[in-house]
């Protein structure tokens, strides 16, 4: 099976001219940040917002046109952004390591700060969906747990709620590919500082202290509708991830996709969009 990092690296090209930037003030978990973002269907001012949270090696560009396609299907506006360290956002300083709780920091501090900077008010947040993939799926779960009144629901795709051996093994393999093949050059098309993006993600996932990371306790705080999706052929995680979500979030619905790896929006976009559209439609009735 092709390594998902290689597949993702071949997916798109950075187009900086299409991006806008938001300035976030310093907070307890971070210094001042410049965040790259783009709107999808921006002129649909009265439509609900879907916020897209990318994977551990992702950025705006690496989503390709999937947010646009999904938002058109759902009749929503989309907010797509590159997290700090990725895309054209503020890079990670070379001597900085992400802490074990980095995803909690993203959900608790950075996403709300971005929403504030973009003047997305309480009324809009109460109609907002968060859609996250991989690490972004974990951040979406944490956002739903920490800010239960500031979204209407969440969709998480191949999320992580604890660390599995398969994840660590695949991430170690990706490091070898990054350092011995053209993967670094390919990823460099999507990140202003590719080493910032890669080693920020790779170092924390391979840190022995991260093996104890888990957000299973936080899942019980999720009150809003939740859809969790996983491919049967995912080599970054098993069905135990979304089965754990279902065990702790009674209202969660699961979708398990055949012939699909870690990135359903690339491997099975039709099935993925159908599942999300059906779920969102059911919550509107």
TrEMBL record:
Position of the signal peptide: 1-22
Domain AB hydrolase-1 residue range list: 51-275
InterPro entries: AB_hydrolase_1 (IPR000073), AB_hydrolase_fold (IPR029058), AB_hydrolase_sf (IPR050266)
One function term, GO molecular function aspect: hydrolase activity
One GO CC annotation: membrane
Superkingdom of the organism of origin: Bacteria
Keywords, ordered alphabetically: Hydrolase, Signal
UniProt name for this protein: Alpha/beta hydrolase
């Amino acid at each position: 099976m092709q390594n998902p990092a290689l597949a993702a690296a071949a997916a798109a090209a950075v187009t900086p001219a299409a991006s806008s930037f938001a300035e976030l003030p310093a907070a307890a978990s971070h210094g001042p940040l410049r965040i790259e973002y783009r709107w999808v269907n921006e002129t649909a001012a009265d439509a609900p917002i879907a916020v897209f949270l990318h994977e551990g090696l992702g950025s705006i560009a690496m989503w390709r046109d999937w947010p646009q396609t999904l938002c058109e299907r759902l009749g929503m506006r989309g907010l797509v952004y590159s997290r700090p360290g990725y895309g054209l956002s503020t890079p990670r300083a070379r001597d900085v390591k992400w802490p074990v709780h980095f995803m909690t920091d993203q959900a608790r501090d950075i996403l709300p700060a971005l929403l504030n900077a973009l003047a997305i008010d309480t009324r809009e947040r109460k109609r907002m969906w968060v859609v996250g993939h991989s690490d972004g799926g974990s951040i979406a779960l944490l956002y739903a747990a920490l800010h239960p009144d500031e979204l209407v629901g969440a969709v998480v795709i191949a999320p992580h709620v604890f660390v599995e051996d398969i994840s660590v093994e695949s991430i170690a393999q990706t490091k070898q590919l990054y350092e011995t093949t053209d993967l670094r050059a390919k990823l460099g098309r999507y990140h202003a500082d590719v080493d910032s993006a890669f080693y920020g993600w790779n170092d924390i996932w391979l840190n022995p202290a991260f093996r104890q990371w888990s957000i299973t306790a936080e899942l019980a705080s999720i009150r809003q509708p939740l859809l969790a999706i996983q491919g049967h052929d995912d080599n970054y995680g098993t069905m135990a991830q979304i089965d754990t979500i279902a065990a702790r979030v009674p209202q969660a619905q699961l979708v398990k996709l055949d012939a699909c790896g870690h990135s359903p929006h690339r491997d099975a976009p039709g099935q993925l969009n159908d599942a999300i559209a059906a779920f969102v439609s059911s919550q509107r009735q």
